Amino acid sequence: MRGGRRYGFTHFPVGTSVAGRLRRRDRVHGRDLCSIRDIPQAISTVGQDQIEDQQPRTLLDTLGYTSGTNVTNFGYDSRYDAVYLRGFAAYYNGLFRDGLRQVNGPSAWYQNHPYSFEAVSVLKGPSSSMYGVSGPGGLVNVVSKRPKDTPFNEVQLTFGTDERQEVAFDTTGPVGDGRLSYRLTGVLRHAGTPLDGYSDDLAMIAPALTYQLTDRTKITVLGEYSSSTRGGTASYYNPSYGVASEIYAGDPAYNDFDNDQWRIGYDIEHELTGSMTLRQRMRYSEVDADLQFSGVYATGTGLGRYWGHYLENTENLIIDTTLEAKFATGSVDHTLVAGVDFGRSSYDVHYGGVGYVSAAAVDAAVQPYSNGQDMDQTGIYLHDQMLVGRWTTFLSARYDWVDITTFDAARVGSDTSHEAFSGRIGLSYAVNADLSVFANVSSSFVPTTGLVHDDVTDPNSGRPADPTRGLQKEIGLKYQLPRTESLITASIFDIAQDDGVVFQTVDPAVFGGLNQVQVPYDLRSRGFEVEGQFNFQNDLRLTTSYTYLDMEIERGAAGTVGKQLSATPEHAAALWAFYEPQSGALKGWGFGAGLRYVGQSWGDDQNTFRNHEQFYTDLSVSYDLGQVGLDGLGFQLNVKNAFDNTDQTCSAGYCYRTEGRTATFSLAYRF
After folding, report:
1. Could you tell me the residue ranges of all domains in the chain?
2. Residue 574 is inside which H or E element, if any?
3. How far apart are CA 365 and CA 343, in angstroms?
4. CA 97 to CA 317: how far, in whole Å?
5. pLDDT number for residue 636
6. What is the CATH number of domain 33-670?
7. If you average pLDDT over residues 397-414, what whole number do you get?
């Protein structure tokens, strides 16, 4: 599989918007190392090599070795990409696709299937000054597979534990005279999971076209449709506070979470002059979620069961238009970007609470309208990147207007409007050809999706939340090992968040089957990160990371002020290595191994008990059968959580369990 798999990517691919909305500079060995090093902000990338080496099944798996990220807050739950950045939730407004926001509804979340993307970028800290509504911890940008000028075709069969069976294909190349190129990617999967009745089925197709209209104008169209069925319940019964039993809470006979989603959009680039470029990106997307869930509760004679049926539709439209100009004023070179974007998102929920008679009775009931929300957001922004001598300066400013209408069960709307300024000042200094130091001050602004509850005992206390604001101060360095494709980034940061929200455990019998709801919190995140990505002559690739995080609650529920936010480890570290010799007796083989460490954290926000530290080991072995005359054919074996750690993790007092050991075997033919 490995021989000849390199088709335009190296260990540091820079996907759409990794360097903000600025045009990428000339790439060196397939990557934009110069611009990454000059950006006065901590940035992590997960490239094509690492994705293929590890074969992640979810976006959370993809980010498991990245500094500053936490993907273990809710144990095993493949339904949602619930990622935290620098201690802050990033899954409602911090997930981007191809540089455009993906706003999730309360339960209708966009799913990012790893086979459909070629890279992931993580921008640490507030980025609202360029990207608009996004959280104080940063944002995650998923880069979709795009058409290539060089033909490439792949068919891949995968088998694994829990009766996993999957076929995937990826084909790309030019058409005719080369002005048109295409890409078509697809997956068909039937699989179970360690949870009884919790499936992992997927059908996905993602077409893409790029057309060079003129020498100055290019348009790319990106689409995707997917239909998935996963389990509706991922939790375990908690017999007492702070304890997850071995009893799975789901009902295997009533446990389908059907998620149908599609997106269509375009990216147009027109070069007005040699120094001025106009761009516009647009995407419309929709998610229909049909969730069957269940739970258990203690009775006088044992355990009782309840069932629920939840329906939600989420729609998003976003249009972003930018004008980029390059010019000089004396000795200062400028890259100026001015733009305006507009976003419209909405969701509607049909849900009538849980039933205690039978799953059939709940399934037969017509679910009434429960709540919904419409949000319109308009932002204007201006960014100037100035280069003079060894100094790079980033000045960014943005102003947003947001109008929100929140609907209650009677479809009566409550209107709220917010507007805010966000900005960034960043400086980077090139000490020498390999080392840069940087500093920044940046702010964020984000309206909160859904309702926030001021009283965790009263389901009627829900209200539209105030917008969340954040301010970060960060200093750091970036170092490139001489004559290697390697980059080390280290930074110290301090982020203050006002009017934020976190999830708090509630009584599901009172809140219609919900275990957690959003409550208002102010948080302070202080920490240190260091990450290294190394590519040594294409034989050995390494990814290392360490994060120290102090996540203090400055305003919250009774008994939480001054405490640490639950499920937020103070220390986390990871190491992934993949050895792929290009010569000698082992040529054609690839060997990968990774170790992830998640340190101790508090199990609730009152800090009454702790989550134990956990270790996870991942393994990978591959072989290019071209070495024995079968050109283009290869196999790969991946084992995740090799030592079968199924320990519990508790967040806001409710405890979840980690998925145990899983393994996949893939056979791929590339031509």
Report:
1. 33-670
2. strand 571-579
3. 35
4. 13
5. 98
6. 2.40.170.20
7. 93
